[in-house]
Amino acid sequence: MSTTAPTRSNRQRCWDNRDTYYACLTKHNIQNPPGTDMTGIKGPLGSGSFAEPPRSEAERARLMEQERANDPCRRERDAYEGSCAQSWVRYFV
Where is this region: Disordered (predicted)? Predict the structure, then answer.
């Protein structure tokens, strides 16, 4: 997405693709999107950085790519990430 402010139709496309992606995650009973680095995220007991064993940056990146490659919602995620500003993608996830 460009650096210019999104138009109303751009925002709507982003939201529609986000909703489609989240519906796919729900359909597959996925709570944490595959390939999403949850390091440093605070949340309920059993989630977040304290639930993950320490890994190097390279190892985390490799695991994230591997998870994304096997993501059953990869097509929907690509559409979502391609139509939304990266700051929105990070916020919504």
Answer: 28-59
Helix axes 57-69, 74-83, angle to 10 degrees: 110
* Contact between 91 and 85 (Cβ < 8 Å): no
Distance CA 51, CA 71 (A): 21
**Distance (Å, whole) CA 1 – CA 86:** 8
Q: Provide the 3-class DSSP secondary structure of residue 16.
A: helix
* Amino acid occupying residue 9: S
Handedness of CA 51, 53, 58, 60 (dihedral sign): negative
* pTM of the predicted model as reported, rounded to 2 decimal places: 0.70
